[in-house]
Design brief:
By secondary structure, the protein is of the alpha+beta class. The protein has helices spanning about 10-20, 25-35, 75-90, 100-120, and strands at about 45-50, 50-60, 65-70, 95-100. The chain is globular and about 35 Å long. The two termini are about 25 Å apart.
């Protein structure tokens, strides 16, 4: 399984930096809860895995967290997301996906689900 596109190392670095500098409100809200090992494990935001960038990544648990906005309800995006998830699973990386609305509505429930996954 190959990535759908290929970026040079410098392009990936620029992409990660751009994503960090332009986080959504929901990403900022979740990052406040994940940074400085608040859940007992270190997370990195906008982390590259091969040719993909995940929103948050816990290297110790090989756990990636993705936040999805409205565009992720489109069939074409869902197909891409499934492909991407399968691709990252090849690297033994688990993916947790949450809609932005879940962060806004009840971040404590999201944090419970993340904490539960970290204990696996």
């Amino acid at each position: 399984m190959k990535p759908l596109f290929h970026l040079q190392v410098s392009e990936m670095k620029d992409r990660r930096k751009d994503l960090r500098n332009n986080m959504t409100g929901e990403e900022k809200q979740l990052w406040k809860q994940l940074q400085r090992s608040r859940l007992g494990f270190k997370f990195i935001r906008q982390f590259s895995i091969d040719n993909y960038v995940v929103d948050f990544y816990c290297p110790a648990k090989r756990l990636a967290i993705e936040l999805d906005g409205g565009v992720h309800s489109k069939a074409s995006q869902q197909k891409y997301d499934k492909y991407r998830t399968r691709y990252l699973n090849v690297f033994n990386i688990r993916i947790l996906r949450f809609y932005n609305s879940e962060i806004t509505r009840d971040i404590s429930k999201v944090l419970e689900q993340i904490t539960f996954s970290l204990l696996d």
